[in-house]
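<given_protein>
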Amino acid sequence: MSEIAGHPGATAVVNESYSFACMSCGHGWEQSYEIEHHVDGDGREFVQYMVEGRVVPSPLSKPTCANCDNHVVRIMRPGRVASARDAAHRLHRTPPAGPVEAPTAGEGAQVSAEDHHWHLSDLLHVFQRKAS
């Protein structure tokens, strides 16, 4: 059997990436693995998951959240955590600071009372919490 250069004893090396989300604390992360395929002395095949040259447990058997050590972790295809973070960033982006110009009515235009009877309290009520 031939070995793969840089991976002693490996007959094949596959690169896989996964996204993880902890269902307990909400922590999300992504990890890439080199999966080395080996054959033991008895001819049985086995795999080793490698991260940065270190053997690590299979992320598919019992993943652990690095934030809270919980094992209730959802495994997803790669890129899911990054795309969720990007979407959240776009959603919560703060507009640039600067002066705000109020719209003005055109010359001779009439604005009805219905069009501007709003009060600040009407606009802020969505941010107020009801007492429990």
Remarks:
- Helices lie at 80-91, 120-124.
- The chain is about 15% helix and 30% strand.
- Residues 12-80 form one domain.
- The radius of gyration is 28 Å.
